[in-house]
Amino acid sequence: MLDRALRLVTGAPRTGSIPLSVAGDRQARKVAPVSEDEKLRQKPFEYARAALNMMEQQGIPPKPNNFAVWYRYFSGAYPELTRALDVIIDDGLPFTDERSAEVYDQFLGIRLEDDFLDDATARIETEVMKLMKHAEAAGQDAEAYGDTLSTVSGRLSSDTEIGNLQQIMEQVLAATRTMEDRNQLLQNRLKESAGEIQSLKEDVESLRHEALTDGLTGVANRKFFDEEIRLAAAEASDTGTPLTLLMVDIDHFKNFNDTHGHQVGDQVLRFVAKILKGCVRTEDLTARYGGEEFSIILRNTDLVNGSKVGQKVRTSVSKKTILNRSSGESLGTITVSIGTAQFTQGESIEAWIERADQALYQAKQNGRNRVEMAEAPDTPVSGAAGKG
Q1: What pairs with residue 220 in β-bridges?
Q2: Domain holding 302: CATH number?
Q3: Which one is predicted more confidently, 314 or 18?
Q4: Are residue 13 and residue 77 in the same domain, yes or no?
Q5: pLDDT per residue over 299-343, tens digit each?
Q6: Are 242 and 300 in contact (CB under 8 A)?
Q7: How many CB atoms sit inside 10 A of residue 102's CB?
Q8: Is residue 216 part of a domain?
Q9: CA-CA distance, 21 to 2, in Å (whole number)?
């Protein structure tokens, strides 16, 4: 990956794992070969230089988040991030601030989420500790109040003079008022802590929603898809209910982008996402899988009915006319190709997604604007739904 990317940046071939300039200098000085340990120590510097070079070439601002993305791209530590950036590069899409932020949020933003959750946990622990202290103080107050009542009871049984009785009653009233004040303070503290914890709960829910939502289209993001597809497969395995996956790709999207511009391309992505959500039930999941590719998880749905949903999506998209929002100009229609695959008991998630992807590829090969059904594992993919 690093060799490929450095050739992209420099336009020159690579030889060995040390940067060309460093290797050339050492050869000129006839320095002994670099040890393996030294090569390993040099790797992070290679990644950093390559990241900065790529950012400069692509016109990407040298911000910490952007550098973190490209450093990991060259390190190869995040295969899914690498794949996503390769798609963007191959499609010739610009790395706008919005797109760069989207990549960071999708693949590295979890670290920010973890930091937030750590902070929220610490705040909740603080509130719990406060409540425990208040409860402890309240217990001590109640114990003192009980001692006061016991003392008063003893005095009442042995002392019957009016003056002494008045003094005893004043002592009881004073202790009661103190107890009431302590109880009121505890109530107020409990309300404050309950409000703080409720606020934290809402913040966490809001963060979770943001972390699982694609910022551009508003549908679920890849992270949510990865979580949900495993849960759905586990449920289907436990209950024996059918489960079908649709992989949806916008036809000729790169050409559309090149012709009308990337802002209009983003408008198309939002447009398709909205149609997809409108074609499925609330219990189904629509997600942006990557680039111009979407996925739909259909619970309690077999392959045939899943393909019917695919046809509904396909026809709904093809019937709509795209308008340039800024100019009102009609940009014509777009189409989608769809691959469908039903989950099979014992099948890995990766194999299931691959079968749906292969069906999508078959739809592209067969002329696009089609729905193709994947057969069961280890059998060929079958064309099913015809061309629209």
Answers
A1: 213, 287
A2: 3.30.70.270
A3: 314
A4: yes
A5: 999 999 999 999 999 999 999 988 877 777 888 899 999 999 999
A6: yes
A7: 18
A8: no
A9: 16
